[in-house]
Amino acid sequence: MSWRIWLMRGMVVAGMLLAGWLLYRTLGRYSFDELVQSVTSFPLGRLASAGLFAAASYLCLTGFDALAVRYVGKRLAYPRVALTSFVSLSLGHSIGFAGLSSGAIRYRFYSRWGLSAVDVSKIILFSGMTVGVGLATLGGISILLRPALAAKLIGVSQPLVLALGIGSLAATALYLVAAAFVKGRLRIRKWTLEMPDLRLALAQVAVGSLNFALVAACLHQALSAVTEVPYLTAATAFVLANMGVLITHVPGGLGIIEAVVVYLLPQANVIGALLVFRFVYFLAPLVIGSIVFAVTELVWRGKASKDVSAER
């Protein structure tokens, strides 16, 4: 058996163990009574709305992989793409270093359906580009709509933060221009990038922006249960926090999102809202994704055993 297969299996097992440890570490920061009280006292309407926005976000994320599979020129049934996307990202969001953690799981799934390691690498890169253009687009819009708030959160002058917002939208525009006019590979010094066509690039911008808007809506519903906060304020704070998450690769943005929200709402008791947000968007998908992953592994192992017995 190839050492690469053993390495991949080791990474998958390590990812599962790390996911379990992160689940314990996150919940271990609070007493059992705090967890129970925060969730049970939370308005059911807000909890349901937050859950719906979280579910819509994960559904939107399946579009990342669907577009990426099309980008590499492969045909794969949507249910398979959706399964791979949900399992890899539900774990990758909490494990951190999503390109590696979710990438290992993606390879585990896609390789069984005929995709090569090169194909999976391109899928990971394309999905990362979708995250980037989505964050740049929504971030630029949020900054330009709320420059004073963005300057306060980042801690820089308002003219500088306006320049950051314009630069973010300009980066998205340049990406679309390159997609429209560059056929094949784009070379920038030592870097080469196989550009998608314009239609695919526009879909990236739309899906990437929509995903961040949905997660911000999930956070907004959680915060609205304890204090009055406009959606645009929550969206601006969330997008800026995610810029920090991308830089630091902190698993699930632990500490960063909390710090931004507490700074934004210093007088409000937001621990319950943040707990619910983490439970709805990170912890519940982590548990579900881990169970689905384990079940699929058992099913595939069972099929492999039957195939070996049949050959004998």
Architecture blueprint of SSEs:
Layout: H1 3-28, H2 32-40, H3 44-71, H4 78-95, H5 98-110, H6 117-145, H7 147-154, H8 158-181, E1 185-188, E2 191-194, H9 198-224, H10 231-248, H11 256-264, H12 271-311
Antiparallel strand pairs: 1-2
Helix pairs in contact: 1-5, 2-12, 3-4, 3-6, 3-9, 3-12, 4-5, 4-12, 5-6, 6-7, 6-8, 6-9, 6-10, 7-8, 7-10, 8-9, 9-10, 9-12, 10-11
Give a short synopsis of this structure.
The protein has 312 residues and is mainly alpha-helical. It has helices at residues 3-28, 32-40, 44-71, 78-95, 98-110, 117-145, 147-154, 158-181, 198-224, 231-248, 256-264, 271-311; strands spanning 185-188, 191-194.
Q: What features would you describe in this structure?
A:
The chain is an all-alpha fold. The chain has twelve helices and two strands, in the order H-H-H-H-H-H-H-H-E-E-H-H-H-H. The chain has helices spanning 3-28, 32-40, 44-71, 78-95, 98-110, 117-145, 147-154, 158-181, 198-224, 231-248, 256-264, 271-311, and strands spanning 185-188, 191-194. Strands 1-2 form a two-stranded antiparallel sheet. A hairpin with a 2-residue loop joins strand 1 (185-188) and strand 2 (191-194). The chain is flat and about 55 Å long. Mean pLDDT is 80; it is low at 247-253.
